[in-house]
Task: inverse folding
């Protein structure tokens, strides 16, 4: 922490000095008026009265603002402390020594001076007081019959230095805390100014609702969209009243405001007093951005499809050219097989793209998983009924999943096809079961006992046209995730090494 006094700490020192001057006035006036009643000044009454009057006069003189401006704070504190030590020493001498109680007043003055004085002056003041008290006690020992107790006086002098050190430490702590508060205040003001600038320039509207349900703040964009800049106060109040009922965590709502449709969503717990933030977005802009994203994705998908079709189409064209020139029957059969394989590959690619185009056509129903999976596996293994032994199905009768039947069927074909391709081929090598998921949802797990999926492949698993199978299109898992998303479900791959582990999570009821 810096040792330079901040302006705020200087102001604190000035305020402390004014209160200390008031204390001096009370002491000087009280001693001048009631000193004799307090049994003070018995040893030298004239000196005591003169010292009290001088103390009062000097305190008044140095307490004027003009003296403070002329002398400066540090010099003024030094002069006043020296006057305090001199006057209190006269009080001590004229009142009979340390038993008069004046040393207690010295401790108070020393502590106050330590909190106000700069640097190590307080140790200098403690030294002067020690010299004064020891000198007064020595004088009394030499010239007076009432010799002082040097042990008690020594303890008093130790107390002077103890109070001086403690007050010095407290002054340093106060200065450091003042500087820390100043720095934090500046940082807070800077942050508030930055936040205000950001909120002012936000393209979205922001509205703050207090715990009492009343609007607290709104940025210029929100004011404009809600009609507050048109002068129609009742329109603004009506729209604000509609928004204040929007609870945090609830589904966003659409609000018609003039020619705009606003998407409004609330976030709670943003302040210590239970405020809510309501964000307003132009729904037309959201739709335009979504359309741009769709067009960009469609462009990338079209380019990828063209690239994927070009390879088998080139193979078909080349095989057809060779077939026209080939006379041997075995070579003709091989070329025809190449043509058929690549034609089927193109057909699968087109079928997958058409399935992706039907993702918006969702008809959700509650599918009983046990009955549906048993029927599906029979259809899935119709060409080789012996493959039924590969599947171990473990569902309860009440396990249901809210899903579009056609979409669910497409996802299962992709997931079970991959599991069958990579499993060991033993009995029960593909396990299917369900368990509970957060939010009243159900999770269906499909696990095989194959070699598993590496971390590198897992990162690209759901990307379009990524495949590790020579005859795959690379769209199966991508389409499966898209169809799951269309049904407000999620499809993810979990770590279950060895073996692949896919989890489809959806609602229980539509």
Result:
């Amino acid at each position: 922490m810096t040792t330079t006094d901040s302006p705020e700490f200087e102001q604190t020192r000035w305020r402390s000095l004014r209160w200390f001057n008031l204390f001096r006035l009370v002491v000087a006036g009280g001693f001048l008026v009631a000193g004799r009643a307090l049994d003070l000044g018995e040893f030298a009454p004239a000196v005591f009265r003169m010292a009290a009057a001088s103390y009062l006069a000097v305190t008044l003189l140095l307490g004027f603002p003009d003296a403070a401006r002329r002398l400066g704070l540090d010099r003024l504190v030094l002069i006043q402390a020296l006057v305090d030590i001199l006057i209190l020493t006269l009080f001590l001498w004229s009142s009979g020594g340390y038993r008069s109680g004046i040393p207690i007043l010295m401790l108070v003055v020393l502590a106050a001076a330590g909190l106000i004085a700069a640097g190590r002056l307080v140790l200098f003041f403690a030294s002067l007081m020690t010299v004064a008290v020891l000198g007064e006690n020595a004088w009394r020992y030499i010239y007076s019959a009432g010799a002082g107790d040097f042990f008690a006086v020594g303890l008093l002098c130790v107390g002077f230095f103890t109070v001086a050190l403690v007050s010095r430490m407290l002054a340093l702590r106060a200065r450091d805390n003042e500087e820390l508060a100043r720095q934090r205040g500046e940082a807070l003001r800077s942050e508030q100014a930055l936040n205000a600038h950001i909120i002012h320039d936000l393209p979205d509207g922001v509205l703050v609702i207090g715990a009492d349900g009343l609007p607290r703040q709104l940025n210029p964009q929100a004011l404009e969209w809600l009609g507050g800049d048109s002068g129609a106060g009742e329109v603004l109040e009506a729209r604000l009243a509609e928004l204040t009922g929007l609870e945090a965590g609830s589904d966003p709502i659409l609000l018609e405001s003039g020619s705009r449709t606003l998407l409004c969503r609330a976030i709670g717990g943003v302040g210590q007093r239970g405020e809510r933030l309501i964000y307003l977005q132009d729904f037309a802009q959201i739709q335009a951005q979504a359309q741009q994203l769709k067009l960009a994705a469609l462009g990338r998908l079209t380019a990828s499809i063209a690239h994927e079709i070009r390879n088998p189409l080139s193979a078909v064209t080349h095989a057809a050219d060779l077939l026209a020139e080939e006379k041997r029957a075995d070579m003709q059969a091989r070329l025809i097989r190449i043509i058929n394989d690549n034609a089927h590959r193109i057909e699968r690619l087109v079928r997958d793209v058409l399935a992706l185009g039907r993702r918006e056509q969702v008809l959700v129903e509650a599918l009983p998983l046990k009955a549906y999976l048993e029927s599906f596996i029979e259809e899935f293994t119709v060409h080789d009924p012996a493959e039924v032994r590969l599947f171990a199905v473990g569902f309860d009768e009440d396990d249901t999943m809210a899903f579009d039947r056609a979409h669910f069927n497409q996802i299962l074909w992709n997931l079970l096809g991959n599991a069958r391709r990579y499993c060991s081929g033993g009995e029960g090598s593909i396990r299917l079961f369900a368990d509970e998921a957060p939010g009243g949802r159900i999770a269906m797990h499909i696990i095989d006992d194959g070699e598993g999926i590496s971390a590198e492949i897992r990162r690209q698993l759901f990307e379009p046209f990524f495949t590790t199978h020579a005859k795959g299109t690379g769209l199966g898992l991508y389409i499966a995730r898209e169809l799951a998303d269309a049904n407000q479900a999620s499809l993810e791959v979990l770590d279950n090494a060895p073996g692949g582990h896919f989890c489809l999570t959806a609602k229980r009821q539509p």
Observations:
- The radius of gyration is 45 Å.
- The longest helix spans residues 150-200.
